[in-house]
Amino acid sequence: MTAPVASGSILVVDDDRVNRTLLARTLTAQGHEVACASNGREALEMLEMLDADVPDIVLLDVVMPELDGMAALERIKADPRLRAVPVIMISALEDFDSVVRCIELGAEDYLQKPFDPVLLRARIRAGLDKRRLQQLERERVRDVFARFLPEPMVDEVLSRADGDLRLGGVRLVSTVLFADLRSFTSFAERTAPDEVIAVLNRYFGEMSDAVLDNGGTLVAFLGDGLIAVFGAPIGCDDHADRAIAAAREMLRERLPRFNAWARERGYGDGFRMGIGMSSGPLMSGNVGSDRRLEYTAIGDTVNTASRIESLTKELGHPVLVSQSTLDLLTVAADDLVYVDEITVRGRSQPTRVWSLS
Questions:
Q1: What does the alpha-carbon distance between residue 204 and residue 147 come to, in Å, rounded to a whole number?
Q2: Full set of structural domains in the chain with CATH
Q3: Burial of 295 per CB tally in 10 Å (0-12, 13-18, 19+)
Q4: Mean local confidence (pLDDT), 75-86
Q5: What is the per-residue pLDDT across 48-59, written as a single tens digit (0 to 9) for each?
Q6: Is the pTM of this model over 0.70?
């Protein structure tokens, strides 16, 4: 059971100055931080000025002269920043039908005029407990998204998903990157399990940071391989540039640093890696059940990137970039050199591939 929240910030909205003052004094005496508005319009202006620092609860009079409680409630519940804030209606007995309508519009509870201090405390505590649970759930959801999304993208995705872990599927033109650690299977066979996991974690830490720092989304870890997508689930015009930048960073900065760390611990002379990428339409979103969700990307673009990566050993280049990715670059990459024209398994048309010089 969640422990009761002792205090919180409360916005009191009531056109009756005496009732508004009395409520404010009572709530302040109970340890709450209180702000007051004389009507719904003034309350909405205050809420807009507060930006992200919204109150924990709104006490809202049902009928007010300038903008009645129902209209204010509808505006609050329509605002993504505010819809999770519990709204407790303040009403007189004759306003009961209005209260019922407000509950239908999203109000969590109501407080009868003249208010009972004991009942007021109970209503506020229930609202604050609900608000705290909402905040804890949002933090949990945020933590899930932060595992595979760049930090600046998390809030935007949460806003679009409206707090729902089941991020709806989207179809976007994006760039997919596959990265694979070479010669790791033979290393794992002759190395203690705890050391194998330590090496993998170090490698994935470096490569994941390269993806996230360049605005990519982590899709999955497969054995000693990594899948990332750039330009999904939030679209962007420079996804191909971001993927190329991540590959550069992986190969020229992250891999040498990882190998230096591995050599210091006696794990051989160093590891090699292969990176393949392709661009085009794909579908992405969260899949799974309530108990286990994973972000995924599917489509021919994903399959093509995987098959191009598998050709890095055969063609002798650690990085292979498809023509489709080159065509979508917004800034010319002077360090890309032509390799060959290849036919990728599963596709009838050949594609040209390029590598980093």
A1: 13
A2: 9-145 (3.40.50.2300), 164-356 (3.30.70.1230)
A3: buried
A4: 83
A5: 887 667 898 998
A6: no
